[in-house]
Every structure is written in C-alpha cells, then in structure tokens.
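Here is the promised in-class demo. Please do not try to memorize the tokens; focus on the logic of going from shape to residues.
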C-alpha cells in the first residue's frame, strides 16, 4: 500500500535529504528533485586542485542531534563518519591585536575570563547554567514542535519555563548586565551570527547556543561537513529514494486543494504529497499561485532577513601558524558593523569576519604544506556586488587576513581562489535576496511565529529546512525533517487511508 503512495521532495539540501530518507524508510516511494547538479544545497563541497572546501557550514555542534537522527534508522553516527572534538573551539582576534582562545576545557575559559575581568569566570558559569536550563527545556518541549495545535503547549511546566527564558530582552542587553569587558561580551554574543541574527535583534534566550559552544563542544567530522551529506545520501540510496539532479521544479498542478503533479522542465511527476526544501518565500510566491499561498509577498516583505555572506575559498601555500581550525576577527565597532549588515544596503567599512582552516585538523583537505581556507564575511541581504566591487572587497579582506596571520607576500602564496556572494546564493539556490540563512531568529520569527512546516491552504504540502521550525543550522534542519516526517505520516494516514 505504502509503496503505491508517492512523495515528491523538492530540494536536495540537508532538509530535503533527511526527510526523503526518513519517509523512504517508512516504505513510501520518494522522488527527490534537486535543481543543481549536486546535492547538499548550502552544505555542498568544492574541490579545486586537491583543495577541499565545505561551501557553507563548518561548525559541527549539538552532536546528540545527529546521533538521535541516525538512531531513527537503527544506526549510529560512527557508522557513517568519525568525529573529533576540537581542543581549541576557536581563536578570536581583536582589533588591538589581542588574541583569545576559547577551549573545550571550561576551567581554562574561566581562567581567561577572570584574567580579563575579575569575577567574570563565576559570571560565565552563571550564564552557562541558565543557558543549559533553556537549552534542555526547549529541547524537551519546544524545539521538536510543529506548532499546529497550540493547546499542546498550554502546560504548566512549559509556561513556567517560558517565564524564565528572558523573552523580551536582547542578548546584548542581557550579557552586558553580567559582563563589562567588551571582548568577553563579544565572545558570548557572536553566536547570534549562527542564527542569522545580531546580538541586538536576537532575544536573550538564544544564549542557549553558548551552552552548545562552551559545554557541549565543537566537533569536526572527518572529511568535512560534507560527510553529513554523504551519510544522508547513503540512507536515501539504501531505502530507495530516487534522486534526480538538474531537476528544477517550475510548476505544480493543484486540484481540490492538493498538489497532484510537480513539473520540471523535462518531466512531470504525479504525487500524493509534496515536501518543499527549496527557499520558502521563493516557492510560496513564485511557484504556488496567489490563491494558495499561505504567506504572500507582503508577508515576506515584513520579515527580517538574515545577512548574506561574502565567501572566499583559498588554497594557500603557507603554514598559517597564527590560525586555528575556527577563527574569528572582531572589530571594535561591531555594533556599527551589524547595523550595516542588517539595515544599510552597503558593505561594512570595517568588517568583522570568520575563517575556517579544516586542513589544520584533517590533512586530506589540502595538499602537503598548504591549507584550504574559507573566509566568511557577513554582508547585507539583497546587496548584489559588481565584479569590480567584489574584487576590491576581496582585496580588503585578504589584506586584513594576511596581517592577522602575519603572512608576507600573500598574493604569491595563493594557489586557489574562488569568491561567492549574495548573487550566487540567488542563482545557486533561488535564495530570496541572496540571503545565506533565510530569515533571522528575532523574537517574532521564532517558534509559533516562524513560517509553519505545513501549508494552510494546500493539504498535502509541507515545508522543511532553515526557514521553518526550529530554524537555521544543520542540527535544527535535521530536527525540522523529523517534524515534517511526522506531519507527512499523519496526513497520509488520515487522508490516504494508510
Ligand atoms: C556560509 C554558510 C555557513 C554556515 N555555517 C553553518 C555552520 O557552521 N554550522 C551549521 O550547523 N550551519 C551552518 N549554516 C547553516 C546551514 O548550512 C543551513 O541552515 C542548512 O544547510 C540549510 O539546509 P536546508 O535544507 O534548509 O536548505 P538548502 O541547503 O538551501 O537546500 C535547499 C535546496 O533546494 C534546492 N532548490 C531550490 N529551488 C529549487 C527548485 N525550484 N527545484 C528543485 N530544487 C530547488 C537548492 O538548490 C538547494 O539544494 C551555514 C550556512 C551558510 C550559507
């Protein structure tokens, strides 16, 4: 019976692959259609002259979410890839040349905090204790929710916990009450960038990411983050998902409030249920006809989009002795930096940025005596740079990068160079405004306020991925695939008699 029911998944990012594999395991016929010639979406990889780069995600956090996902298949994460816990989570470079390492060993971090501000080690512990409470209680009762039936949430324990969540305070105002040293404040606030936000527009309860950072730790999957994509692809193949690449969906045919067919340029697929992993606003406003849109153009215009990113992939013949696996550079005036990136459509004059050197941990990521580096600079969504502006911004970042790494004659050492910017996110992924992370995690774009995992106008249409609940990042997207898996099963049971 189940085999006769077809599910079409549109988009082969982490969300599409994960939900396709879960539903195929359940016995349904699943067809996954991906616009690009390779799968993985923002988590694809790039190999140029034996330099290997993860195109997007590079921080492996919340390891238990991955373990729990593989458990659904009766497997373990280690059946797919090895994981290494980093001893130094990351290195932070400040404008005044100070360098601070954040370690996986909390005791070392407490010492560092105390050395910069007396008593701040204790404050760090207090912040992390609260972050742990928020992390654990939201994992238990909020994160895996589809928010279809809000009455399910009206439970004394959930409501009581919410009161302790600092809902109406920004992360910055919360942290600055506890910690006065600006460098330490930044260390506790930068994680908002993981959520496509800034410390000024992200609510304080997202301090839970600091718990993931300081307490759960930062890991490296051998072979890079693409190992996760490979694991999902293997699960899809093992359970018979039909993966079609170079298959961009252009149209759907709707009858009686149900999608009956999905059309690409080349083929038409009949379907009983559709899961969209493609960009949510793009799909709702460009593919779904107006009368069936749950969220129309005006709805999306009011949303706070996360920044896009200016990405530089470098293959470099240098020891990069100053760099660690993950590195951050924070300028002094980063409030201005965030304002530019969010509210002014121009490039930041003094950009803060991040760089990743996976070959520091995994020699297979670059040729001998060389390193592969990915530099990420947040930039305003919708800011599409000309080739000339792209090149001059590249030069500016490379100059700073070379100064921070004390590299002489960097231009002579660069063997591979590739740039990606908002324009590429638009053309590669149909990303609205070329945004890297979809919509930001402001208070009114979180949980019940976030675009739903289901359409309210088309009965057999569901959405998975970073725009939906719980949100941005590989672990949340894996969780969203489990939410959609349950919604899809429930729909097919009720409506298709399964
Ligand atoms: C630069 C960068 C750095 C990041 N760093 C981290 C990190 O360190 N750690 C972390 O956990 N997360 C990180 N993230 C976030 C994380 O990568 C994303 O949240 C996640 O990969 C998004 O997955 P997704 O399935 O929602 O969407 P996507 O990866 O965008 O997948 C959507 C897919 O749909 C396809 N598609 C679009 N339109 C169509 C169509 N019409 N027909 C068919 N297919 C279509 C696209 O081509 C794409 O493959 C980062 C993201 C970026 C961009």
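The designed amino acids, position by position:
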């Amino acid at each position: 019976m189940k085999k006769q029911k077809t599910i079409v998944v549109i988009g082969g990012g982490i969300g599409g692959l994960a939900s396709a594999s879960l539903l195929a395991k359940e016995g349904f016929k699943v067809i996954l259609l991906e616009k690009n010639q390779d799968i993985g979406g923002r988590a694809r990889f790039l190999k140029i002259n034996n330099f290997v780069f993860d195109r997007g995600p590079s921080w492996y956090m919340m390891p238990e979410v991955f373990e729990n996902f593989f458990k659904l298949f009766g497997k373990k994460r280690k059946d797919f890839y090895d994981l290494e816990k980093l001893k130094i989570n990351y290195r932070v470079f400040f404008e005044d040349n100070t360098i601070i390492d954040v370690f996986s060993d909390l005791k070392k971090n407490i010492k560092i905090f105390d050395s910069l501000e007396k008593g701040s080690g204790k404050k760090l512990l207090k912040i992390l204790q609260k972050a742990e409470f928020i992390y654990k209680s939201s994992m238990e009762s909020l994160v895996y929710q589809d928010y279809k039936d809000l009455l399910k949430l009206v439970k004394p324990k959930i409501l009581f916990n919410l009161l302790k969540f600092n809902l109406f305070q920004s992360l910055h105002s919360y942290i600055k009450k506890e910690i006065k040293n600006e460098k330490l404040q930044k260390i506790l606030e930068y994680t908002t960038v993981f959520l496509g936000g800034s410390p000024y527009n992200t609510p304080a309860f997202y301090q839970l990411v600091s718990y993931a950072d300081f307490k759960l730790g930062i890991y490296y999957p051998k072979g890079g983050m693409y190992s996760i994509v490979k694991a999902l692809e293997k699960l899809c193949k093992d359970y018979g998902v039909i993966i079609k690449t170079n298959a961009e969906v252009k149209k759907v045919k709707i009858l009686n409030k149900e999608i009956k067919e999905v059309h690409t340029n080349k083929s038409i697929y009949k379907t009983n249920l559709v899961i969209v992993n493609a960009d949510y606003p793009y799909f709702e406003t460009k593919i779904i006809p107006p009368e069936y849109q749950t969220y129309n153009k005006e709805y999306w215009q009011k949303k706070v989009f996360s920044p896009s990113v200016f990405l530089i992939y470098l293959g470099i013949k240098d020891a990069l002795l100053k760099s660690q696996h993950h590195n951050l550079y924070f300028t002094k005036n980063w409030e201005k930096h965030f304002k530019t990136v969010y509210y002014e459509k121009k490039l930041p004059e003094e950009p803060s940025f991040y760089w990743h050197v996976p070959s520091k941990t995994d020699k297979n990521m670059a040729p001998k005596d060389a390193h592969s580096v990915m530099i990420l600079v947040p930039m305003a969504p919708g800011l599409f740079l000309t080739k000339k502006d792209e090149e001059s911004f590249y030069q500016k970042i490379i100059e700073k990068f070379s100064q921070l790494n004390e590299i002489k004659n960097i231009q002579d050492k660069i063997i591979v160079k590739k740039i990606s910017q908002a324009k590429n996110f638009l053309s590669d992924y149909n990303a609205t405004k070329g945004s890297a992370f979809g919509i930001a995690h402001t208070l009114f774009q979180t949980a019940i306020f976030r675009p739903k995992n289901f359409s309210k106008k088309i009965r057999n249409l569901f959405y998975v991925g970073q725009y939906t609940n719980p949100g941005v990042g590989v672990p949340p997207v894996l969780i969203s695939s489990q939410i959609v898996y349950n919604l899809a099963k429930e729909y097919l049971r009720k409506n298709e008699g399964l």
